[in-house]
Amino acid sequence: MFFAEFLGSFLLVSTVIGSGIMGDNLSPDNAAIALLGNTVATGAILFVIIKMFGKISGAHFNPAVSILFYLREELTITKLISYITFQFLGGLLAVVTTHYIFDINLYQISNHTLRIENNMFSLLFSEIIATTGLILTILFVRKNDSESVAISVALFITAGYWFTSSTSFANPMVTIARVFTDTFTGINPISVPYFLIGQCIAIYISHQIFKSFEK
């Protein structure tokens, strides 16, 4: 169960960072094409890993999702801590491994600047929307059509890359992991608190929204 979370998190972060590097290498002067390649690869791997590990661990690969299921009393505190630990271990190992296979420095800190960095609260609000949308997608699709969770999550994140200013991280583990890559998908450490606060707020909002539909 926990190893499934480790492997899924590893594959997710590897794909996010690796596809970003590949896209930037192949189209260094066209960020839109690089982002498109990054988007397609991320959506594809999400579908695959959710199908692979859904019946083993629930296929969270995301502390926000794990915390949500803890709040819904579907995870114990012990399992929650283990899930999050293995998610972060998988994500951080993926950063180093991906740097290695692309023959770049293993240890990096992102220096990326964002076009909207003068208004960091827009990032916070963007991540509230992205994470709330992701969690509600999981909850409602699981309730109404459990076999479609994988494709629904993959499609939501694929869309989220393009309709949110933050490119829809919606995942604290991926957020932290991307601090340690100064490549196309890196995130500057100064942005991290805004991403994480937005994601945490979204956990509460999505939990309350779904509870209102269960009454």
Please provide a written account of the structure.
The protein is mainly α. It has a single domain, classed as Up-down Bundle (Glycerol uptake facilitator protein), CATH 1.20.1080.10. The protein is 72% helix and 0% strand. Helix 1 runs parallel beside helix 4 and helix 5 packs parallel to helix 8. It is globular and about 50 Å long. The two termini are 31 Å apart. The mean pLDDT is 95.
Measured by DSSP, the beta-strand proportion falls in under 5%
In DSSP terms, counting alpha (H) and pi (I) runs of 4 or more, how many helices?
8
What's the number of structural domains? 1
Shape: globular
Sequence stretches where pLDDT stays below 50 over 5 or more residues:
none
Q: What is the number of strand segments? A: 0
How far apart the termini lie comes to 31 Å
CATH architecture: Up-down Bundle
CATH topology: Glycerol uptake facilitator protein
CATH class: Mainly Alpha
State the major sheet: none
CATH superfamily: Glycerol uptake facilitator protein
Overall pLDDT level: 95
Task: Name the structural class.
Answer: mainly alpha
Helix content: over 70%
Radius of gyration: 16 Å
- Spell out the helices and strands N to C: HHHHHHHH
